[in-house]
């Protein structure tokens, strides 16, 4: 079957199911007369999200129609969708959520920190702004000037503003270019985030290298690979970086990435 048709039908089933879960009292409507079926009526949902009843009917029927992001946002609010549910709604509709919840604005589940602490090799979790949200003791030992002591935990500020990063990271400029290209991939999904835009403006002014690399417009995924360091205490270190997105693990957080640095001999 055509994947577009499949997505439309899935969207209709999703909206229909979540409408059925809501009672009038849940959304501040009078209960009124006895109902034959549970949940809100289509006309009630339509009124809540500023649509016509016909449009709500067509959505639930999987009709071929275009839904804008504003209409989807109102629909998500009317259905009282959580973060993951809202993201799923937008994905089924083939639209990018312009708002979302940025990881730096919410509380990290303790299970993530506990899981990172249980890893024996250097490991850390980054959010979309490149802020370290969790790390373990081996990572704190390795990343002098970033994850040890009382430092700013933003990876971009560390790389482009801290002298310690140039001393630690071998093949520095190539690695800096790679990290910035990975950040740009996340930046495109959070362009409405004032803090993220402010970070780019700050570093463009403060670091000529950042300004030059940012102007290059390179975009890369965080794929891992070999990393080499000149550690002030441990000397030369070669490690293989392995990175996972936490979308399917530990609470389902696609906005977070876990990186591990597995030591390599030789």
Automatic annotation (TrEMBL):
GO terms for molecular function: DNA binding. InterPro entries: Cro/C1-type_HTH, Lambda_DNA-bd_dom_sf, MLTR_LBD. Residues 14-86 form the HTH cro/C1-type domain. This is Helix-turn-helix domain-containing protein.
